[in-house]
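Q: My labmate handed me this sequence with no annotations at all. I'd like to see what the chain might look like in three dimensions before we decide whether it's worth expressing. Could you predict it?
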Amino acid sequence: MRVNIDEIKESALPRAWALSRDEVDEMLKGDRAGYRAQGPTHVEAQLSKVERRVFLQANSTSLLTAPCGRCLSPVTVEVPVRIDLTFVPEAEVREASGATALERGASHAGGSFGEAAADEETYSGKVIDFGPAVREQILLSVPGYPVCRESCKGLCPVCGANLNDGDCGCDRRTPDPRWAGLEKFRQKP
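A: Here is what I predict for the chain of 189 residues:
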């Protein structure tokens, strides 16, 4: 996903990339360990530039499977991603540090940034690698708690049966712990 910025002329430069199934699975390891890609993810992008700033507008859709967060049944999740980022030369950010950075709403030197810099990434040299930014946006779009359907009843906490298939007959009533000491008196004959 590397592009030489000299390739981007007056009109927008269309680009397309594909992340293989293995690349997507590798990307989803860790925080999103339950997710698996069903196939490659295709990224369609338009690149444009004004002076040394490069604008990336891209769309992609990933088809993922994951266990339902309630009943553990497999769920297919379509993850659409819309990316709008501005890539700014690193030298421009360094020049803008201090009072001008605060005026822009950004303080990169202090490790924090304002709203104005939220959609900005930095680059150095003539080649920009869009891969990390695209991967980050895909990860941010993956839902944290997929469910097979909103009315999913989940699993029985006593026996583990799938409650969507029917009631298992277990007593799932949770007694109030404040009255638990009196329960032994009620059970005496």
